[in-house]
Amino acid sequence: MSEEFTNNKGIKFEPNVSKAVIDTAIDGIIVIDAGGRIQMINPSITNLFGYDEEELIGEKINMLMPNPDRERHDQYIKNYRETGERKIIGIGREVVAQKKDGTTFPILLAISEANFGGQKYFAGILHDLSELKEIRKELKQSEMRMLHLSENLPVGAVYRIEDQLYLNRKIQQIIGYSDEEINSLQAWFKALMGTHWEEYYEMYLQDRLRNFDQVRTYRVNTKSGGIRWVDFAGYRDGKGEVWILHDVTQKVNIESELITLNEQLEKRVKEKTLALKENVIALEEANKKLVKREEELEQSLSMERELNELKSRFVSTASHEFRTPLSSILSSVELIEMYSKEEQEEKRNKHINRIRKSVKTLTDILNDFLSLGKIEEGKVTPTIAEVNFNESIESLKEEIQHLGTSDQKVIFRLNKVDIRMLTDKKILHTILTNLLGNALKYSEEDVYCEVVKGDDHTAIKIIDRGIGIPKKDQKHLFSKFFRAENAEAIEGTGLGLSIVKKYIDILNGEISFESKEGEGTKFKLTIPDSHEENSHY
């Protein structure tokens, strides 16, 4: 066999190259001629069968076969030469071979046809299946033992060997499929897992890579079309996979019912809470209305009480303030009649002055009533003009000189030599006359009037060190006919400060005060410069 080698495709190989490849092959290689005699072997053949090369070269190939193949092999070759029908050539088949010592073993045989030197040869490649068969046998025995052990398990068990599934009795009861039925399905995973099988399969593959390190809960379709839920735990080794499946359908259904009931309960609680909230809101609104109504009633009662008190004060004040000067006038008139002689002129003049003072007091009282009436009827409209405050000081002094004691005086302090304001002169005069008169009337010391002219307003402070205003009476200070508790013995109508407050509002000004009983009072006025008539009233 020193000539070059040509296979049935017409491809030629150098003998040395072919020999090197064949000798190093792991599988056994045998070349026979058309008569079935061995022409060449590689070292793997001698190792596999136990023969030396000299014992095999030239011998019939059937010496490596047990009966009946040994007796029939010549006929196999003859049939192929005559019919050309291939039974094993180019296909490969698992067959039984026989060693020199007579023992048989399984091999995978693949035969190819080749031309060499004008002659037909057959080359066979032999792969020993003994070890694989033994593994399969052990695996089968292991499977059978495992299946036997798992038959009485209360949970489902599945053994996956390659693509073959072995199911114990419990899992067959769960899914309704037998071993034969589940393995006959072309896509058993899809059949069991349903429409979402691809998601489950991806999850299974990921778990498989992690050697099933966690338990999963799967939704499984049964053969009858029902649905079961199973907890899946797996184990994987070199031979296959073991799956343990625990039927938790009842638990899942109970949990589902509990979730549904909980959702219904939450919904009812929300509805009840909403209804309760609405009721609470309605009650709060009703309570607010009741409180408001109660406040209104209380306010009405308070106003009625104040009105009654105001009426009482008015009657008392009017009675006192009118009766005193009228009595003084009456008595003075009677005394004047008695002093008819010339030498009694001084006494007559004294009583004439008393009459004059009493008449002025009555006039002032009537003016206060008239002023308050006009203001409340909206008949007072300010006349805005420039007022020289320095000139007003003299008329103020003249107006209030009779209100204090003979040694009292009003001390004016101005931040400018010439102060001019844009306001109503008459209203300003009334305000200051009233406040300065009160300061003199309720104090035995000098009264201070501080005037500070700003860019667009004038700030005026009137300060006395008199009897002061009791704390509890301060909130009523600007009310009509109200007089502080410690001032009731001093003549007055209780209208002055009410009129002052209304006049300040007409001028768009502000008034505030600070007072402490027994220490004195400070009034602060802020009067803006007005450039057009005020339409407040």
Explained architecture:
- It is a single chain.
- With 537 residues, the protein is an alpha+beta fold.
- It folds into three domains: 5-128, PAS domain (Beta-Lactamase, 2-Layer Sandwich), CATH 3.30.450.20; 133-247, Beta-Lactamase; 380-528, Heat Shock Protein 90, CATH 3.30.565.
- It is 47% helix and 23% strand.
- The chain has 14 helices and 19 strands.
- The chain has helices spanning 15-23, 43-49, 53-56, 69-83, 130-150, 169-175, 179-184, 188-193, 197-209, 249-338, 345-376, 389-400, 425-441, 496-506; strands at 5-7, 12-13, 28-33, 38-41, 93-98, 104-116, 119-128, 156-161, 164-167, 216-221, 227-236, 241-247, 385-388, 410-414, 420-423, 447-453, 457-464, 510-516, 520-528.
- Strands 1, 2, 3, 4, 5, 6 and 7 form a seven-stranded antiparallel β-sheet that branches. The protein has a five-stranded antiparallel β-sheet with strand order 9-8-12-11-10. A five-stranded mixed β-sheet has the order 14-16-17-19-18, covered by helices on one side.
- A hairpin with a 4-residue loop joins β3 (28-33) and β4.
- It is rod-shaped.
- The N and C termini lie far apart (141 Å).
- Mean pLDDT is 79; it is low at 533-537.
